[in-house]
């Protein structure tokens, strides 16, 4: 265990000491590029969360500064992200009317609760809780979220009013409004989507043909959304589209975020606590995964539990500055890394860039069409959808596939929270099911060696008076009874058996329930005149067994190797009439 | 897998073929003794369940006949038992007023639902669900139930009216009524309790001194409750105690149980479905445990999934004949076994005995004091209380102890259902926690051998360019990220490492999440110029890995033994300047 140190809770004390002009340059360049990328993203994700666009800007200032103090990733770009924005919309619309001041306040409160949870998990080093989210559940959830988000933005592209919390509701709601489609909005939306798709796929090769390096071309093509924003503002101004029914962002209050205590209403807190837990865990898992991938590229490490502290503090900061839940974003972090960010200071510089935008740029965004923001969301989230993962997972593991498809279906059909909870529940149930059915092999000796192998897979010899079993799993309450059943059944089928030897090579733990089962098995065998022996018990398992009385009244012995056990028991039979060996395969018609 | 056969669902076809005069004698003797024991028990447990005494008799007739057809245990004595009666009271008093006709109907409905659940679990071979109840939870639950039951019967000993669903409520309720104690009732109750305790401990030695064999003395002392019943009836008659406020059983309708469809009310069904599930699982687990213990003594086996069918059918029969939930009772089954029962026919004969008692004996029970029945319950259930298990469990496993004490405390403080659910939830959470923190050893070569051992426990040699890890656990979603973190941290601390070899001796499974993690680890290592190798991968794990693309782009190799891996990698370094060996211990200041 590491000792407590202030530096472990304040990583800036570590990287700050070696800060140089070179790192400053890298950080500044990255910050400029990320700022350009983040302005339209923050406005769009706030829209997705059902919040005024300015909330997206607010969530991109103070949280970034605070994460720079507490976070351990050198390149993670914190801020509003798509999936968390969708989850925010789902949670907050349950407790407040969309568009109301209460809705904005509830979103800040959600960030506060989520931040407090992350902080507590981090301070108590409880990050392992995130392990409950299997890759299959996360992958399924992200895919389903991507679909849900894209479909939910269709209304902005069509220029209609629609709602709904799941795929069915959204589709029904939109199809009821198709008569009200605004053609100008649709035109802007379609062109924006088309342009942004082209930017993703076609712009970089084109720029490279003009002689730009792949690196610069890649970064420039990240500015696609800014170009779409600028052009569509000009289009609205030129063709007077705001008067023709094209919804625009409108007035964004200029200035820095207002600092104030979020409104804390206990009934609201109770309504938001469940969604906050899910947002915390999912945001954390996604964020850590990006941070680790980037850190590994430079042979750095991150500390997941300190990341909880960093993200928790960032969310609390977001709550105090009129924002909403934030986490580390994948695309933005990769850009930050590629653009040369060396330390978390890059994030702080990005915060300054967004602050400047909030102060001086908001009047320019007045005529920005909502449809353009919706287009940036749609193009961004469709990259989250990964149906190929379904195929890969099906090939490898039916259980993981079941968890993944269930998460997708429930998320789409019911909603984000139900999807995650069902997926996690199913993963745990399937893990317990697998644990409850351990692989147990009857083993025999490979002739002429000291090795013992499964009688079903190898030509081995066994002694009809000794049954040797190898249990390929730790023994615990989930499988204790299965093992009891298996052993008693095998013994009942073999009247000649007088010794049972359990080869414990693969037993990493024996819990209290399994110990009780071993006692039961021993007593039941003893009633039939059969002794129970153990072989190849691991050190830690043996240490533990010595704390119970089991070994004291064990009817057989404990042997270092299975070979020694068989040799010792064979000596016990010396002089008896029974044949020493027989072919196991021949005597095992079924099992 | 076994093929479907009618006989596997109707075990009577098996044992019925070999039925003889000898087995008949054994079964008849056992049936007579069990009947004598069961008459007072069935009345008392019905009382505990809040039901009229006659319901206990009804629950001891048809269910026993039906279990004899479908059950696989040759000696299990099915009928009303203490813990299930307590759970019935807890469940039914939530949906109907105690003492009402609806209460009796709801108890029968509970048996129907529970029976249907058991039947479905049995037909679909889903008995493994019972594995979720760890020994620690069951042991804690039984202890707490024993305490709750004993305390709940105090009111009958004191002759007061009181209620309550948990220890606190019961104690508060009783203490508010201490002014109304009926001294005659108290006298009968105290004498009965004292007598029954003496019968348990002192009668058998006394009988043996008179020359009876231990076996006969043991069986005769089982008749203690019948003696208490007879004597207390005589006392009530002699001293006119019924007129002095001593509550008596009163009129029990004579006759066989009425056969009718239980009233099925959907809102009642919904209210009872949760408790029915718990009653089913707990009744099943207890019953199977007794049945297996007894079967093993005669080298017989039982089939847990068919036991579900047998118990399910018995409960459905109970519902159709005015009974309530039943299961296999521990004490009764042991007596049945000891008295010489050879086949389930003994249960059928017991049913006939109870039917005769229902027809002809009930007038005799009119003056039976409730206090005597309460005394038989108290003395019976206190043997369930096992505080020594707490101490044993503490010594062996803190996790099991936590599950056990939590189950006890919540059962006593809140109620039986909350106790079981909390205990099971905690057991699963702790199992996941252990799974999420696998033991990972850095291994080195034992000099002069082909063996590799933990560098912390043994004097071994390692190569600074190769990191060898042995993960002592199957790889799954619960520990995938822990392993990622561990590996990346160890690599970050060892700049000289160029190869990572995972020794997979103890890896029994790699699930989809863990495979993704291995891919991630491989890519992150690859970014740092480090190759990932596997050694000693088990056959089934390897078969599965071949279904994914992981092995195709594995940056290193897969080796049959760890020694082969190290030898092959050392060849790759041939001619390089780095020293071939160094002491691992010296180079591992911490970790």
UniProtKB/TrEMBL annotation, chains A, B:
**What is this entry's stated membrane topology?**
Multi-pass membrane protein
Q: Where in the cell is it found?
A: Membrane
Q: What is its main location?
A: membrane
Pfam families (UniProt xref): STAS, Sulfate_transp
Output the Gene Ontology cellular-component terms: membrane
Membrane-spanning intervals of the chain: 21-39, 45-70, 77-97, 103-124, 136-158, 178-199, 211-237, 268-296, 308-326, 346-366, 373-390, 402-433
UniProt-listed CDD domains: STAS_SulP_like_sulfate_transporter
Span of domain STAS: 456-569
> GO molecular function: any one?
secondary active sulfate transmembrane transporter activity
Write out the entry's keywords from A to Z.
Membrane, Transmembrane, Transmembrane helix
Q: Which PROSITE patterns match?
A: SLC26A, STAS
**Protein known as:** SulP family sulfate permease
